[in-house]
Structure formats: C-alpha cells, structure tokens
Amino acid sequence: MATTNEKSQPSATTTNADPHTPAHDASEAEQPLTGRPWMYRSRRIGPVKLPAYASPPFQLGLVAFVCFLCPGMFNAVNGLGGGGQLDATTSNNANVAVYSTFSVVGFFAGTFANRMGIKLTLSFGGLGYFIYIASYLSYNHNHNAGFPIFAGALLGVCAGLLWCAQGAIMMSYPPEASKGRYISWFWMIFNLGAVVGSLIPLGQNIHSSAGNVNDGTYIGFMVLTFCGAALAWCLVDARHVQRADGSHVVLMKHPTWQSELLGLLETLKTDSWVVFLFPMFFASNWFYTYQFNGVNLPRFNVRTRALNNVLYWTSQIIGAYIFGYALDLSRIRRSVRAKVAWAVLFVITMAIWGGGYAWQKQYTRASAKDDMRMDWTTNGYVGPMFLYMFYGFYDAAWQTCVYWFMGALTNNGRKLANFAGFYKGIQSAGAAIMFRTDALKAPFMNEFASCWGLLAGSLLIALPLILTKVRDTVPLEEDIKFSDETIEEVMPTVGLETHEPKAH
Prior knowledge:
With 504 residues, the chain is an all-alpha fold. It contains 17 helices and two strands. It has helices spanning 56-69, 71-79, 89-116, 118-142, 146-172, 179-204, 215-231, 257-270, 278-283, 286-299, 302-326, 334-360, 382-409, 413-439, 444-468, 476-479, 487-490; strands spanning 43-45, 48-50. Strands 1-2 form a two-stranded antiparallel ribbon.
C-alpha cells in the first residue's frame, strides 16, 4: 500500500500483462487490482456528495470509525484513571500486560498485516477491546484481578495487529500532498470516539462523587467495541483501492510469510536511519500513565475525571486539525515544513510541560488523599482543567507529526506497514514500562520528570533525520522497488468520476 509520486509521474499509459508470462497455479491466480464498478462511483445524499466506496477518503473513514469504536472506547476507559476503578493497581497491571504483548507483536505486525490483509487484521484486533472492557465489568463484581490481566495480554496481541494495519492505511492510501490532512481526519474521528465514550461515564456518574464507575458504563463500552470489530469487514481489499487520479496503492500482489518476514528485515537494512525516530516512538505513549493516573485520578472525583476526559480528547481533535492541515501547506516545501514542525514541537514541549511542572509541585503521591479530590465546582479548578486540555492537544500534535514524518520518508505501503509496526511496538514497550513504574508507586514528580525529559531528548535525537532524510517528494521508481508490482500497475491514469476503473 503506498501513494504514487505526485510531482514526477510517468506519462505512459496502462499496459496489459505479457501474454507469454507463465501463469500462476490455481492457488496463486492473479487477483484483479480493481473491484466491482459500483465501488468507484460516488453517491449523493441530498446536497452531500460522498466519495467513492473504494476511494482513500471513504476507506480511511471506515478505518477511523473502527478505531472510534474500539481504541476510542479503550482510551475513554483508561482516561478515567485506573480503568474507572478507585484503585489503579489492577488497571496498571492489566495495562502492563497490554503493552508488553503489544510491544512484541506490534514490532512484527507489519508481516502479519501484509500477509493476512486489512479486514481480518482489523476485525481480530477489535475483538480484543471488547474482551478487555468485559474484564472490568467482571472485576466490578468478583474482584478477580486475573481476568483483566489476561484480557490485557490478549488485547496487546490484537491491538498490535489493528494499529499496524491502521497506520499503513493512513500513511499509504493518500497522495503525498494530502498525508497531513488524512492523518488529521483519522485522528479527529478516532478521538471523537474517546469524546463520546467519555460522555457515557459523565452521564452515568454526573450526580456521583464516588471513586469508581458503574456497570452500565462498561456495558455501553462493550456494545460499541463489538460494533467496531464488525465494521472492519466493510472495508475493501487494499488492491481495490483507487485514488482520484486512477493510481493504486503499491503492495505485494503475492505476499507469503517468508516474503514478509524477509521484508521486515530488509526494511531495517535499507532504511536503518528510521532508528533516529525510535526514541520519539518510545515517548509517544509514555506520558499517558502519568496524565491519567498521576494527574486525573488522584486529584479529581469521578464525575470531574469524566469531564476532564471529555475535554482532553476534544483538545486532541483540535490539535490534530491544526497540525494535520498545517503539515500540508502546499506553498511551503515539504522539507521545510518538517523542520518547522520539529521546532514547533520543541517549543510547545517546553511550554506545556513547564506548566505541568508548576502543577506537579503542589502535591505528591503521599499527600494525594480522597478528601483532596477536586470537583468542577471547586475554586481553582479552571487552571488544572486547561492544563489537562493542553496535555491532550500536545498528544495529538506529537502523534500527528510522528505519523507525518514516517509518511514523508516513503510511499510504499509494505514498508509503511513495517514502519507502523515499529512505531506501535516501541511505543507500547514504553507504555508497559511506565504503567509498571506507576504500579510500583513511583513518586509523581519522578514520573513527570521522565515524561518531560524523554520528550525533549527524543526530539533532539530525531533532528538529524528531519534535517537530512525528509525530501520534497519520493519518486515512484524508488517506491516500487520494495514491491512485486510494476509502475504501469499503480501509476495515475484517469479519475474515478468519469471513467470505469482501469483493467490490468
């Protein structure tokens, strides 16, 4: 899966395969690169014109809603602090299990996504979220900590696959000039899921000052996550996706387990400079534990935590919109945009986390007692409310930029699937370490300092790559090298609206 180069496209027309080429056997028959004609026709609902079903915008929208319903609900539960429980110990241990298996499976998930296909990968991934939330419903009644930990380990496997497939789609389906917008669209819809999910406990607990949420909250989340897993089957195969200019995504027509395992190793060999982004990957989920369990949980009652959650994820939508569209400003060269994005990230890292330091000096883990939990009616609530909103804004800015940096390095979807796997695997290793650190009751100030230092340090390590490896465009001839397709099979030909899909 990959975009074609927008600035130096070949002008040749599509050609048919050589009739003298030996045919594959029945089990490896050539699959058509286009689907049924209806997939490529747009529809109108009143004044609204919908993109074609097999177009990148529509497919990305479906993927975004899968993540809206699955990881979005997971974020809503975790954002409450302690998974909605009064004591965060069980939630911390479950999340250690999540991110431990996630880190291992995620790193190699590109191989699985390229071999299994996106529908199976995403749907299997979604079921893990359903089982994870069900474990908290069970825990509300029997306090069996083993079930959430088992569900967490299973979710790590599922999430590693889901997020790898999602990342490859988000970075490889759009044209080069639109990657920032596509990332922002996904991140906005995905985090809208967390907003809606956060409204559930807010509505359920609006008149409660208790510490943990009720059964109805978890049941609502379970229904939504199951729907997300089912929605994944509405996606089309990647080979059927066609852009408005007639181009297709670059992928392996005949992937095997051997070819994809070797492809993973080849990615590390040919693109070894991607390791300069690994510290940014590691830092990208490190701060969640501190924000959820070191800020929201100890200092606010349940209904205020739910409100904070709504504001946190809403701020993510705003951050994704601003950064996604800014990263696609066409009047500025892409290599320059990358440098500006790095500089802006560094500035807001100093500003927002500097404000966080002033807040964290006010309390410790030992001093944070139940009677210190603030309500939204408490004097002085507005300051920490805005700090929490800025934390959410910052997260969206960081994630959007990291995805955009990766997407600017290549357009080859097979390679981007491996990049996404590296990203989610290393990210999850960091999260597992931090959740375990919190479970061991590390001082809040230590957790805060590790977040701020890791974020700033990882930006400095990534700077050489930003300065030297982000180019204004990546030639199609370079992208095609990591695939068994030809330029003629993926190059732009015609638009979706005025022609039938091209034949091969």
